[in-house]
TrEMBL record:
<dbReference type="GO" id="GO:0006567">
    <property type="term" value="P:L-threonine catabolic process"/>
</dbReference>
<keyword id="KW-0456">Lyase</keyword>
<dbReference type="InterPro" id="IPR015424">
    <property type="entry name" value="PyrdxlP-dep_Trfase"/>
</dbReference>
<dbReference type="GO" id="GO:0008732">
    <property type="term" value="F:L-allo-threonine aldolase activity"/>
</dbReference>
<keyword id="KW-0663">Pyridoxal phosphate</keyword>
<dbReference type="InterPro" id="IPR015421">
    <property type="entry name" value="PyrdxlP-dep_Trfase_major"/>
</dbReference>
<dbReference type="Pfam" id="PF01212">
    <property type="entry name" value="Beta_elim_lyase"/>
</dbReference>
<dbReference type="InterPro" id="IPR015422">
    <property type="entry name" value="PyrdxlP-dep_Trfase_small"/>
</dbReference>
<dbReference type="GO" id="GO:0005829">
    <property type="term" value="C:cytosol"/>
</dbReference>
<protein>
    <recommendedName>
        <fullName>Aromatic amino acid beta-eliminating lyase/threonine aldolase domain-containing protein</fullName>
    </recommendedName>
</protein>
<feature type="domain" description="Aromatic amino acid beta-eliminating lyase/threonine aldolase">
    <location>
        <begin position="92"/>
        <end position="386"/>
    </location>
</feature>
<comment type="similarity">
    <text>Belongs to the threonine aldolase family.</text>
</comment>
<dbReference type="InterPro" id="IPR001597">
    <property type="entry name" value="ArAA_b-elim_lyase/Thr_aldolase"/>
</dbReference>
<dbReference type="GO" id="GO:0006545">
    <property type="term" value="P:glycine biosynthetic process"/>
</dbReference>
<dbReference type="InterPro" id="IPR023603">
    <property type="entry name" value="Low_specificity_L-TA-like"/>
</dbReference>
Length: 451
């Protein structure tokens, strides 16, 4: 559904798809930009939405006032202005995907020149794709809606010959565990999932990531044996669970895989963190992979988008497949502009701070006797087990939820019936966020002792 709105000088992108205006948080942020708010107020069918930006999932129509969608009601109490925008996620440790566009990012989106990307005419997308390809040392890139899309397009593009075939990956890999079985569905491929985590925990291997030896040991050769599914692709992930795969190990894997004529695809959703942690240029990682997927919403703070990077002929094929899968889009330069802003303003300086926050949390957890499961913690993600202090993740989450303040957003962490918990740092966390989270844990420990 496309909607016509009064023109704002230089803002063609406000004639945009409902995705920007049907979600009240974005509408709320746009409404804070004076030019947008003053112009939108002139449209009778937008004014009700602007006056009730706290209504959840506002549904905008050109023929009727704003209304709630699917029966979702407005909150009983409006969110105070000082707890909106980035302040709303200042104590949210669930993921680095919870960040919200800042006013400056939204302004960049609104001002972005746009065109029809299916025709190759969106200048902001063209600029982003060229920039990311150059950063990663490749010829071309394809802007996609999500990391799952860019990963699955990359894998499908590599696996052109059809089954039988297999993909070798870490058993924890996102492409295997968290992409809805896409490799099987899209490619008809078997996944050879190496139990890296279990082997490392049992002391059966030194490295906590996939290695060249795994390729030697597990890749199925194309030797004419009719019983096997020859391995046609190796998928690596960097970072994986916050841990960095060293460049030297990636190089060794690349050599072993290529000697067997097997390409290497990297899920580099958080490769930005690996580059910061090691001080290595992104292109050095990129040149050791035949294709790479990088994400702009995990860590970098853009609301939408990932990019698939590789040789020009590879990306041409992937673009064709993206269209077949329904991933072609039109004036998506408004989203590419957010990614460009993130590359300019979040990477690299803001990410280094998230590593320091993670290190600070680890120090406190060790002091309290909590087990660190991904030790050493390389980047912005901490895996811990609070059962070592007699708690479950639910105990910690409950204590955090009880810390209610008028001047700060609530603390959000994932709970669970076991002691295992993941805590993720992002660049919009408040300076006292870790201290507040640790204080909640201390209260939970004290309550358990008193009980």
């Amino acid at each position: 559904m496309m909607m016509s709105v009064p023109s704002v000088p230089g803002i063609r992108s406000l004639q945009l798809a409902s995705t920007l205006l049907t979600r009240s948080p974005l509408l709320d942020r746009l409404a804070q930009l004076p030019a947008c708010r003053s112009q939108l107020r002139q449209a009778p069918h937008y004014a009700p939405a602007l006056n009730s930006c706290t209504v959840k999932r506002t549904y905008i129509r050109t023929s009727a006032p704003a209304m709630t969608y699917l029966g979702t009601a407005a909150p009983a109490t409006a969110t105070p202005d000082h707890l909106k925008g980035p302040a709303a996620v200042a104590y949210d440790f669930r993921s680095d995907t919870v960040t919200v566009p800042s006013p400056d990012m939204l302004a960049a989106m609104v001002q972005a020149p746009v065109g029809d990307d299916v025709f190759g005419e969106d200048p902001t997308i063209v600029a982003l794709e060229h920039r990311v390809a150059t950063l990663l040392g490749h010829e071309a890139a394809l802007f996609c809606a999500s990391g799952t899309m860019s990963n699955q397009l990359g894998i499908r593009t590599h696996l052109r010959g059809g089954a039988p075939h297999s993909v070798l990956a870490d058993g924890r890999a996102h492409v295997h565990m968290w992409e809805a079985g896409g490799i099987a569905a899209h490619c008809g491929a078997k996944v050879i999932a190496v139990d890296v985590e279990g082997q490392h925990a049992r002391g059966e291997r030194a490295q906590p990531h996939l290695t060249a030896h795994d390729v030697e040991l597990h890749a199925v050769p194309d030797d004419g044996d009719a019983h096997g599914a020859p391995t046609r692709l190796v998928c690596v992930e960097n970072t994986l669970h916050g841990s960095v795969m060293p460049l030297a190990d990636l190089k060794a894997m690349n050599e072993v895989a290529h000697a067997r004529e097997i390409p290497v695809h990297m899920d580099g959703a958080r490769l930005w963190h690996a580059a910061i942690q090691t001080g290595t240029e992104l292109a050095e990682w990129g040149r050791l992979c035949d294709s790479i997927s990088v994400c702009f919403s995990k860590g970098l703070g853009a609301p939408v988008g990932s990019a698939l990077v590789g040789p020009a002929t590879f990306i041409k094929r992937a673009r064709h497949l993206r269209k077949m899968y329904g991933g072609g889009w039109r004036q998506a330069g408004v989203l590419a502009a957010a990614a460009m802003y993130a590359l300019d303003n979040v990477f690299p300086l803001q990410l280094a701070r998230t590593h320091k926050l993670a290190a600070t949390l680890v120090e406190h957890l060790r002091r309290l006797g909590v087990k660190i499961e991904n030790d050493p913690v390389d980047t912005n993600i901490v895996y811990a087990d609070v059962s070592s202090v007699g708690l479950t993740a639910n105990d910690w989450a409950k204590a955090a939820a009880e810390d209610v303040r008028d001047d700060a957003a609530p603390i959000h962490i994932f709970g669970g019936a076991t002691g295992q918990i993941r805590v993720v740092m992002h660049y919009q966390l408040a300076e006292d966020a870790v201290d507040r989270l640790v204080t909640a844990l201390e209260r939970a420990i004290a309550a358990k002792v008193d009980a």
